[in-house]
Amino acid sequence: MLVKLSASVLAGLLLVAPAAGAQDINDAQIASIVVTANQVDIDAGELAAKMSANAEVKKFAERMITDHKGVNKSAVDLVTKLKVTPEDNATSKALKDGGEKNLANLKKLKGAAFDKAYMDHEVAYHTQVLEAVDKTLIPNAKNAELKALLVKVRPAFVAHLEHAKQVASSLKAAN
Amino acid sequence: MTRRVLLTALALLIGSAGAGAAQKKAPKPVTHTVTVDATSFQPATLTLAAGDSVVWVNKDIIPHTATSAKKGIFDSGTIATGESWKHTFKTAGDLAYICQFHPTMKGSLKIK
């Protein structure tokens, strides 16, 4: 009984810890994370749309460009309306650095190797972004409209993740 | 040729008889709205009568489609943000549909 209780308390603490650690994040920083996260995926999509010869990969890349541009337009419109200036922070910088590293890596690749690296990264990236949306961005957003925007776009990221997984596994099946 | 005329006449007869019987019961065709928002169809399941129309209104910030799961029945093509697409359903039956861009988006029409 005692053992069981302490195990569940421990599990509870572990679940709460990441959110508690990120509690000092403000709306200006959240805005910067949102804009950066979208831009990073637009940049990767533009490279893939140009580089890939695979119809499914190209279609996915074009969807990423369209959707993430749509999300960014709404995000920029909202922060302009709210008079919030996006503020750089550790998370947005890490996203930007990660995006640049991914582009540099992809630029060295061609053909099937490029497609695989791009799609695998998209699966990992959307997983990571969804985790940030759920654990950090939505719980910490103070402005109701900013929170509503995050809630509204979340299902699109889920759809992107499913789409990325499907294309990534179709590449594996083809090889 | 004669056969086609006969068939057409027959179809007209059946059609008008059917319409006559249905006219008392069936109300005027209705246009139903499906709101497309947050990468979902709202309502996800819609019941309508044969002859009714459905208009999909995209209130989301990204483009979507309303496309029958079974190919070739209906396909809106791209519905951009703020735009809509209307289609009339003449035949009874259950139709599943998706967004071609986001196949996690699922909807269904129950046409009575």
Low-confidence stretches of chain B: 12-18
The whole-angstrom Rg of chain A is: 18 Å
Shape of chain B: globular
Radius of gyration of chain B: 17 Å
Strand order of the largest sheet of chain B: 2-1-4-6
Major beta sheet summary of chain B = 4 strands, mixed
Shape type of chain A: elongated
**Major sheet summary line of chain A:** none
**Average pLDDT taken over every residue of chain B:** 86
Oligomer: heterodimer
Rounded to the nearest angstrom, the distance between the terminal CA atoms of chain B is: 35 Å
Keywords:
heterodimer, A: 175 residues, mainly alpha, 6 helices, disordered N terminus, B: 112 residues, alpha/beta, 4-stranded mixed beta sheet, 1 helix, 8 strands, 35% strand, globular
Overview of this protein structure:
The complex is a heterodimer of chains A (175) and B (112). Chain A is mainly alpha-helical. Helix content of chain A is 87%, strand content 0%. In chain A, helix 2 runs antiparallel to helix 3 (55-82), helix 3 packs antiparallel against helix 6 and helix 5 (111-140) runs antiparallel to helix 6 (144-174). The N and C termini of chain A lie far apart (52 Å). With 112 residues, chain B is α/β, with parallel strands linked by helices. Chain B is built from 1 helix and 8 strands; from the N terminus they run αββββββββ. Chain B has one helix at 2-25; strands at residues 31-37, 40-42, 45-48, 53-58, 67-68, 84-88, 93-98, 106-111. The longest helix of chain B is centred in the first third of the chain and has 24 residues, at 2-25. The interface between A and B is medium-sized, with 18 and 14 residues.
Explain briefly what this protein structure is.
Chain A has 175 residues and is an all-alpha fold. Chain A has six helices and no strands.
